[in-house]
Amino acid sequence: MKIYYVEDEKDLAEIIRKYLVREGYETTVFHDGETALEHVQDPVDMWILDIMLTGEVSGYDLIKAIKENHSTASVIFTSARDQDLDKIMGLELGSDDYLAKPYSPRELILRVKAVLKRQLIPQVSEIVRYGEYEINITKREIRLESEMIDLTNKEFELLLFFIKNINQAFAREDILKHVWGENYYGSDRVVDDLLRRLRHKMPELKIETIYGYGYRLL
What we know:
Elements lengths: L1 E5 L3 H13 L3 E5 L2 H5 L8 E5 L8 H10 L5 E6 L4 H9 L4 E4 L4 H16 L6 E4 L2 E4 L4 E4 L2 E3 L3 H12 L5 E2 H9 L8 H13 L5 E4 L3 E4 L1
Parallel strand pairs: 1-2, 1-3, 3-4, 4-5
Antiparallel strand pairs: 6-7, 7-8, 8-9, 10-12, 11-12
Helix pairs in contact: 1-5, 4-8, 6-7, 6-8
């Protein structure tokens, strides 16, 4: 599998590159956002992006460009700014995981494997319907009549989780575990925020708030 790693700390980048190559991943390193931006259309399996980069192009700018090019690549954010707001923003923009610096190479490898494993899980049904919505799981597309609805990766995964478990109530902690994975240690506020965005984009969804507990899709 092919990974693009964007990190302006050259010593750290080389250490991580060696670990990734040792695990069998074809890894290309970019030391600035401007160079990486020239490759957002390349067919890769994963981007690992540092948020704060030297120059004018940040990790946030890169993930926006990646998503605008309709890439299906997974994205892991890394940053020394270990704050809930950074995590929420990264996940809202479509990242699959967030890892705060300093981190060990082994921890990053575990996160990479976990995210790519979820990406490779085969889907049982290609198309499912919810009300007037048509959801193409394989293509990760949602249509309402002739209108295409644009969701981030995490918004789509959250929707799919509810669709597969309709009428079942889940605590925020359960939603975090199933959608973000066992290794996510951030605030459960990302669930509330992501659901707010999902409700805005798909107002026909009947997502019930169970106060003091969590949510369910009716």
